[in-house]
Specification:
about 220 residues; alpha+beta; 2 domains; eleven-stranded mixed beta sheet; four-stranded antiparallel beta sheet; 15 strands; disordered N terminus
Length: about 220
């Protein structure tokens, strides 16, 4: 079935009013009137909320089992050792330079994958920047301000706020794609007051795939070249 874009306003497991309130405060909605007079709604999180969010789960390495790692600590690292110290050694590791001075690094674990890019590899000040972080196993999850989202969740486990959106957009399909923008640092107040929503470097977003009514995968992604 064809995939459709969802406007996902809150991310959380249902049943807890306090968590629902926290998620509603974290996942914001930017409204903009288009040239055609229509209202364009874009769900987003502030950069501060994103940096404080965590990714958690377990790998074959005991030291990473059950840990919650702050996303802000993964966004830019001086060495990939900073990543493996937390998650252990990956099942597969690729380090290549397809663009001359730029380096691409791929670290794959069971149900979890990271992709980094480093510009000007000969520059000692250059860092590895996180380009993609993908979760495909129920063993892994994102947590934003206490609201958790993980692969394997059914739409019945999502909060009423999310369910209302799904019920409307799922009238003809149960396969869907959702995206939550990550705002550029220092621009949240401007967006809240009706100004332009500026996205984090690389048009960063948290992306969600739903397949057959089940959350299939979750990905943090940004376009860095």
């Amino acid at each position: 079935m064809g995939k459709r874009i969802l406007v996902i306003i809150a991310l959380l497991i249902s049943g807890s009013p306090s968590l629902e309130s926290a998620a509603a405060q974290t996942i914001k909605l930017h409204k903009k009137t288009t040239a055609q007079g229509e209202i364009d709604r874009t769900p987003y999180v502030t950069y501060a909320a994103f940096k404080a969010a965590t990714v958690g789960g377990k790998t074959s390495s005991d030291k990473s089992s059950g840990k919650e790692v702050i996303l802000g600590d993964l966004i830019a690292v001086s060495s990939l050792d900073e990543v493996t110290r937390v998650f252990g050694q990956p099942e597969t590791f690729t380090h290549e330079s397809p663009f001359g001075q730029d380096v691409l690094a791929f670290l794959s674990y069971e149900g979890f994958r990271l992709e980094y890019i480093k510009h000007n590899k000969d520059d000692p000040k250059s860092k590895y920047e996180l380009r993609e972080l993908e979760l495909t196993s129920p063993d892994w999850h994102f947590t934003v301000n206490g609201a958790q989202l993980r692969p394997g969740m059914s739409i019945d486990q999502l909060s009423p706020a999310v369910r209302q959106t799904l019920d409307r957009d799922f009238s003809k399909s149960i396969d869907a794609f959702g995206s939550i923008a990550v705002a550029k640092p220092g621009t949240a107040k401007q967006a809240k007051r009706g100004g332009e929503l500026q996205m984090m470097k690389g048009d960063a977003a948290i992306q969600i795939w739903v397949n057959g009514g089940i959350v299939d995968k979750i990905r943090f992604h940004r376009l860095l070249w």
